[in-house]
Design brief:
By secondary structure, the chain is of the alpha/beta class. It has 8 helices and 12 strands. It has a 7-stranded mixed sheet with strand order 3-2-1-4-9-6-10, with helices on both faces. A 5-stranded mixed sheet has the order 5-11-7-8-12. It is globular, with a radius of gyration of 18 Å.
């Protein structure tokens, strides 16, 4: 089965944001602000990419969608980070309706063969375990019979961490909430042209059968001041604790996330 992961890297779409801006120019200015971009590159480099580069099953596509208005200096930095990663595909799109742009982007790299397609989404500060792609394929085989009767099925790996990077390393809190990106995947019948981006991750249980797998850490959900979901008023603050030596070793073994690299990146300016 084909596995596709999609990451929107500061794409200025119409919709897709919980915090809105008055104009498209305002959104573009916010997304490409120097301080924000520096933060996104640091988490992308230290959280998102290390486990993807070391997946135990490396047969997947990692689609990174950017805006065609992204300044050259940022695009060149992104290309440099993805160099040598054969799974990575960068696509630049003009501003458009968020879900439609993402659906078209994913479908452009789909094989549309006789096998179901497995798709997951992640932000540029999220991560999945090194075993994620392999575990996803195993889970998909487990629910293969169910998939014959349904156009979509959600495969939910719910265990992992909320985590924040900083000059002192990584602070984290264990989580097992349902339907948390990035380890939530959707399984699509071969003829189904919808995508993981056509569905709100918090509402998948209202739209399709879901199967949850727990008991193994599979996700890191980035937690920082630029999270779209944290900008709304009334959001409860989540307290994270610095990882101790055992915690840092766990992150290295399971996610290939190195707290020393985090400290280096966040102490460099």
């Amino acid at each position: 089965m084909q596995v596709i992961g999609i990451c929107r890297f500061s794409y200025p779409g119409q919709g897709g944001f919980q915090v809105e801006h008055e104009t498209l120019d305002d959104r573009i200015a916010y997304l490409y602000a120097a301080e924000r971009m520096e933060e996104r590159f640091r988490t992308f480099q230290s959280f998102t990419l290390p486990p993807l580069r070391t997946q135990t099953d490396d047969d997947f596509t990692f689609l990174v969608v950017i805006g065609d208005s992204m300044p050259d200096v940022h695009r060149q930095r992104l290309e440099a980070l993805l160099e040598g990663m054969p799974q990575a595909v960068i696509q630049a799109h003009p501003p458009g309706r968020h879900r439609k742009v993402m659906q078209d982007a994913i479908n452009s790299v789909r094989r549309f063969d006789n096998e179901p397609c497995l798709q997951f989404r992640m932000d540029d500060d999220d991560a999945v375990a090194r075993r994620y792609v392999a575990s996803l394929r195993e889970a998909a085989q487990d629910v293969r019979k169910l998939s014959r009767k349904n156009r979509e099925i959600a495969i939910d790996f719910n265990q992992g961490f909320l985590a924040q990077a900083g000059p002192h390393g990584i602070s984290a809190k264990a989580t097992n909430g349902p339907y948390t990106t990035a380890a939530l995947a959707l399984m699509f019948k071969p003829s189904n042209r919808l995508s993981v981006m056509n569905f709100s991750h918090v509402k998948v249980a209202q739209k399709m059968p879901t199967v949850t797998f727990t008991g193994e850490d599979m996700l890191v959900r980035g937690h920082n001041d630029y999270n779209d979901s944290r900008q709304r008023p009334g959001i409860k603050k989540i307290e994270l604790d610095p990882l101790d030596d055992l915690g840092e070793e766990h992150f290295r073994e399971v996610f290939n996330i190195d707290a020393d690299l985090v400290r280096d990146l966040y102490s460099s300016s």
